[in-house]
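hey can u check if this looks right to u? its 319 residues, i copy pasted from the old doc so theres a chance i mangled smth
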Amino acid sequence: MGIRRGTDINLFKLCSGLRVLGYLMILLFAAIVSLTYYAVVFITWGPLLFRAGGLSSFFAFSILFLFHILLILLTWSYFMVVVNDPGSVPQNWRPDVDVDVEVEVQEHNLEAEAEVVVASHASDGLDLETRPSTGYCTRCQNGKPPRCHHCSVCQRCVLKMDHHCVWVVNCVGARNYKYFLLFLLYTFLETTLDCLALVPSFIRFFDGAKNHSLSPGEFGVIFLASILNLAFALSLLCFVVMHVSLLLSNTTSVEVHEKKKGVRWRYDLGRKKNFEQGLILFTGEGYLGQIAIDIMITSQAFDTLNGGIIWGRLLSLSL
């Protein structure tokens, strides 16, 4: 009697099922925003805008104005990180090492600045990590540029991949990292404002006043909104600090595990250049003008560490 062999399970394909969880997280995000909006606007500060008068109405107007501005900003950044492609590798990509590139004047200046950074690093007596060679992804059956990683959820390689975020049903990579960081920042400010804005309702409910206008149901809404916003504010503070630190060192969440102690990180061009690469070059809102950018391979548009090499084919874009 033979033994029946079990069916092989592809764990990488099972990971793609997490995308379903991501769509549920979008609904959860919308539910939390709606609950908070009702608690802040309709229960707490909206009534004071017309009934209180004087300084109280002005203060209520200021709170509501700031609340709606932050809400618009976080909703916009959330939408942008959801719909924007994080950066895909072109099909059948191979490194073009023999191509002759006419480098723009602006890029030449940026290369010179980066070489100065490298020289300063060497003068500090710190070793620079060597540049990794391009690889090959067996799951995508395609070339794999440096700083590119395969996402088991999206089932593809992502340029300068930071992580896959279930809250946005998308990877965070070279082309949408700015929107992700702005989403963290705006949501932290909004949840902090919500916690502070809901404090007066707690005071009115517990001060023993017989004429407070809150019903038990309304207080339940305010209590739940306060707990959720406080939890998100505390957790987002940690994420904002972590990602700002990664941004200033030109490191992704994945690359943290690749860095070696005592060795200068090979992509670190200084905080100013790291900030420009992370938040400006790949969002179309830069001030660097017409420069050559390697959009097909990496977000290191003027990464000239280790010999001043710029990977792949350069395309001229207006930012």
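The two ends are 70 Å apart (CA to CA).
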